[in-house]
Amino acid sequence: MRKFNIRKVLDGLTAANTAAPTQPPAARDTESIPESLQSEHFQLCKTVRHGFPYQPSALAFDPLQKLLAVGTQSGALRLFGRPGVECHCQHETSAAVLQIQFLINEGALVSALADDSIHLWNLRQKRPAVLHSLKFNRERITFCHLPFQSKWLYVGTERGNIHIVNVETFSLSGYTIMWNKAIELSSKAHPGPVVHISDNPADESKLMIGFESGIVVLWDLKSKKADYRYTHDEAIHSISWHHEGKQFICSHSDGSLTIWNIKNPAKPAQTIIPHGKQPKDGKKPDPCKPILKVEYKTIREGEPFIVLSGGLPYDTVGRRPCLTVMHGKSTAVLEMDFPIVDFLTLCQTPYPNDFQEPYAVVVLLEKDLVVIDLTQNGYPVFENPYPLTLHESPVTCCEYCADCPVDLVPALYGAGLRQKRQGYSKKEWPISGGNWGQGTQTYPEIIITGHADGSVKFWDASAIMLQVLYKLKTAKVFEKRSNSKDEKASTEMTDEDPFAIQLISWCPESRVLCVAGVSAHILIYRFSKQEIVTEVLQVSTTPQPRPSISSNNSDHNHDSLPCLNSSLKQSAGYQVELVVQLLWVGGDPPQPISTMSVNSAYGLVTFGNSSGVAVVDYLQKTLLLNVSATELYSPSEQRQPRSPRKNRGKILQTHKLCVLSNGCVICLCLSLTVLLSVCPSRAAVPAENRDGAFTRSRSSSVTSIERDVREAITALSFCYTFSRKADGALAPCMWVGTSLGTVLTIALSLPPAGEQRQLQPATASPCGTLMRMKGSILRMGFLDAGGCFLSPPYEPWNEPNTSDDQERERGRRRRAVWAGQGEGQFAVLCSDKEAKVLALPTQVCVSKHSITETSFLLRADIVQMGAGVCVACFCANGHIMTLSLPGLRPLLDVNYLPLTDMRIARTFSFSNLGQAMYLSSPTEIQRLTYSQEVCESLQEMLAELFIPIETPEAPNRGFFKGFFGGAAQSLDREELFGESGAGKASRSLAQHIPGQGSVEGMKGAASGVVGELARARLALDERGQKLSEVEEKTAAMMASADAFSKHAHEMMLKYKDKKWYQF
User: Fold this and answer.
1) What is the β-pairing status of strands 924-931 and 622-627?
2) Contacts for 184 with CB less than 8 Å, ≥ 6 apart
């Protein structure tokens, strides 16, 4: 029997009491932490929309207010003024905008839609609103015309009729021009829809009407009959007047232009075929494509300008769309990158009866807006100041960063100045209307967009504006693909855009950028203000033989994107530091990268996919870890195998590390399936000193069935926290989230900063499972013991391209910024189904919230508001929600936007201070806010569209022109079109719909007494509207009674003197 030793027991108790004070600290209970964020701090509203209007359909310009309006096929209106002045409006219906007419210098415009409705917009408020609407019931709208300084709108229809609308009351006039009265009485054929309406510049009582069939009528409004009729064999597309009102020009479907004298309707005075070939034998020239639009503009000194679109010969296959400018004997053909939707010639005067003096042409293309300078030789284009190049290459991903370091925007802008093109017009941008808002928002904001061609753009989004700062082209790192058949066959198996950006990870403080592409490649960039030239040198070593996979060695380099093997000049800005590629195995492409994270304080980048997770040291250019999701679990954790193979593949079935820097590129082939391309770091550490730091991965050839059931890596986060439950001190580590809801930890061991960081190896070791949740892990973050957000550690930015002495001195002084010193912490975990808060290091769940049961989250972020921290979520059912931290109380839940397109899920992004954004269309970014403070100040931040400007005086025609009848003839339209002169129109023809005006804005801003007053005013408006309707009915009844009384009186007089037997 073993002897009992009491001394050992006492020694054990003494050791236990001595070690008691070193127990790890525990975070405070969440109930004891005050949460400053409440429900009243949140309100969801749209702020601004940036980018090019998607699928444009109409164009208009106010020559006095200098405002440009663009309508789209989805019923949207975009208004542009000076750079930074933009506004987005949306009709209640999604019908296409056919035409836009400004009420020049009145702060209003009229829009005509494809659903046969016209709308009057008020532009005198920061958020334009519809004042009146008129819906035609029996006729389709084809053309509208609003003369300058007139309140009567001419509306042409598909039946060939013209109706007149009072834009002040949006009521129809009883004056109507019927098609059968406009054409020859002997003509039995219908002239077709109305394609043009305009006043004679010299006589407002003469109205020009163009029908599609080729008939043009000059209508006398006073006598209500046609003065002249002009007939042409070809269909008409547009008409434009000479400013004197004696000639007009027509564009036709055969590519010809005809110039007519108004008093000679028999034949055109001149016929021009701008792009037609004149045959020598006198035959009729070959027809050309239709000239869709023509404008005839005069100048005081010189020949007039004729600007037209279309009209090219049919044999010009593959030629770009063109805009033709004819001036005297010169003809300039300006090629466009996209089809022309519409164009407008900008002139000095708004009066049509004066010399126009054109100075620019605004050309609306399907995917661009071009402004051409007509005053300079060669017709150069203006540099477009609007953010319309967002879709230059399709946007594939977005990131939004608010409250960035203040020196970041100037640094990116300075690097982007070298990228600006030359050859633009030297004159100022001609669209200069409106005024900027007076908002108090001062923090910088940056939006990063990744594109299909591999480019990355940085945008300054401060103060609800958007301006491009810098453009990075990642495809420069790779060699251009040849056009051989073999290469074509291999590219058919991947996406059409092999360089497309899929993920972006950015550290604003250190300016380290990491991007992942669809070809399973990752690039790490560092920012530098100096230009460098990269020398590329490839050195290969003899790999160890592995017969089982040697046949696949040739496929690695064949199917992956080949890195550049020559010198690369890198300008100031972002310069590539490291390239990581996942290579093909046996003809199968690698799995796409699902998540990624970079940390400048640790010098590490990690990424994962459905095969596993890898950690790369981009300072030493080494692979620290390469394991599958199964290998992250500790041996004690029993996991059921999800595929027939016990040994599932790691993430880097084959991988290649390649760096381009001041040194060289060295390719080290450690096995037939592991290809590492590394280079000496900036401290010039020899590669042979780090050979032992590489981790060799095993090849894994798995079937598609295994790939479907594999546990994928969905979230990664570097942190400075407790990696294990028994840890008593904070340490660098990495947390991993999987598609099965598992959260695992990886402990990191890093050498001290400075030269030792370059020499000594870093290690990464899995620590096992931390937590299991319902759904797939989306986001992980950390709070300190007081509930404040802990940002990941970072290293402040320093210029990387310096001399060796400067580098060593900088390395001694460099100190990374570490957060979360001292007491315990909270870990915030969010999956696509629920959210949890854990106390660290005890790993006890202190709060839990089930976010959704019937749907799933697409995006979740831990964001900082002005008064605290919250979790912002975007759900697939369209709900935007916020949860308090650490208590996870619901603060906001709004049904905002249902998921109708995966583009929204791919680009939706939350940011700090209540900001968010997503790609609302392939060409537009929609920004929104969920902060009550930002919503309250939004009205001040928005731009002013209307500025009071005096209308210039009408041109003085001179004594002789007035004496001999050359002056413009005025017309009293009120007397002609008013109810007293023309009567009332049929009520069944169109329905008047009163607009909301500013009522919606008043409802949203109303609160307290102001809200009561606003509601009272709204009630009075509604009561006034009802009273006006009653008054109209009373007036109608009185008129009917008067008519009956008059008729009865006439009957009485008729039979007054007759006897009873005379009836």
Assistant:
1) unpaired
2) 229
